[in-house]
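**Backbone geometry record:**
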Amino acid sequence: MKEITIVVPARNEEKRIAACADSLPSSKFISQHANLIFVIDGTDNTAKILEELKKRKEASFEIHSYDSRLGKGGAVEEGFRLAKTGFVGYLDADTSIGVGKLEQLLRKLLEEKPAALIAVRKRICGRGALRSLAARAFNSYANLLFNLGIGDTQCGCKFFERKAIVPLLPLCTKGFAFDVELLWRLKKSGAPIRQFPLETEEKQGGTFGPLDAPRMFWDLLLTRFT
């Protein structure tokens, strides 16, 4: 029986989803130890591409599509509820974290069995100065508000013991800032959070827009003080 479920939230990812669905099963370790669930709430051909790929390659990953907008956090929650394994986690669809690095993280997860093991980007190859500055500002703001002590709250690669994370759901934050609320609730529960530093690569084509950044700052204020 597999021990890990990897949830991939995918909204309007038709340009990048095939690379993600191809790369993860290419690792023998990941195929042996992890189930893969795609949660889709977009309006493009992401689900169709996955269905065709699954049929053509006889892949075993699950595809769950929703007509209503879930938000990234909401999509991850849905995946966690569907999971049956002892460990659950989520991974961005952009393949910015190579399969080799992901495999290293998952090996550590199974060997040491921490309540939480999260990727922390020590370097992002190809990221522009303005985007880097904004990311550092948000991380500082999040750590100041919630006293997390986390080097990178927003890396889309986090894994948890299912028994530690499911009782903390549902989250109030359904958008891109959900990571912070999740980590905050986990810390308040007393569960230790382990950090796994790695290098990633900046990828183009995501759905993060100019209005999402101020919304994330606002969501954190609402989460902290309401």
Summary: DSSP finds nine helices and seven strands in the chain. The mean pLDDT is 92. The domain at 4-225 is CATH 3.90.550.10 (Spore Coat Polysaccharide Biosynthesis Protein SpsA; Chain A). The first helix runs from residue 17 to 23.
